[in-house]
Design a protein that fits this description.
The chain is mainly α. 84% of the residues lie in helices and 0% in strands.
């Protein structure tokens, strides 16, 4: 029987955390876009809020990455993040947009 090495266990944990980070990013993105559609704001204020959103996302993603891999970005963590974001968009994006 084939046993899992420590490296495989560590990388699987990193993938799971970054998959969750991708889902958290898309949830946050959907909530912010839903709020921006419902609230009418000045274009400069909207640009400032957009900038704050991306700064908050950068901090959030860096915290997830630091938690799972001490901040080192690798192909499998980036792929897991992208998979989480894409799967959220594919399966649940329509549910949140239907609430409009």
């Amino acid at each position: 029987m084939m046993a899992l090495t420590d490296l495989i266990k560590e990388q699987a944990g990193q993938c799971a955390v970054m998959f969750g980070a991708g889902i958290a990013f898309m949830v946050f993105y959907q909530l912010c876009s839903l709020a921006s559609k419902r609230i009418t704001l000045n274009k400069w204020l909207r640009a400032g809020i957009e900038l704050m959103f991306w700064l908050a996302v950068a901090v959030m993603i860096s915290q997830f990455l630091y938690y799972c891999a001490y901040g080192s970005l690798s192909l499998h963590t980036a792929a897991a993040f992208g998979a989480g974001a894409l799967l959220w968009k594919k399966f649940f994006c329509g549910i949140m947009n239907a609430a409009d």
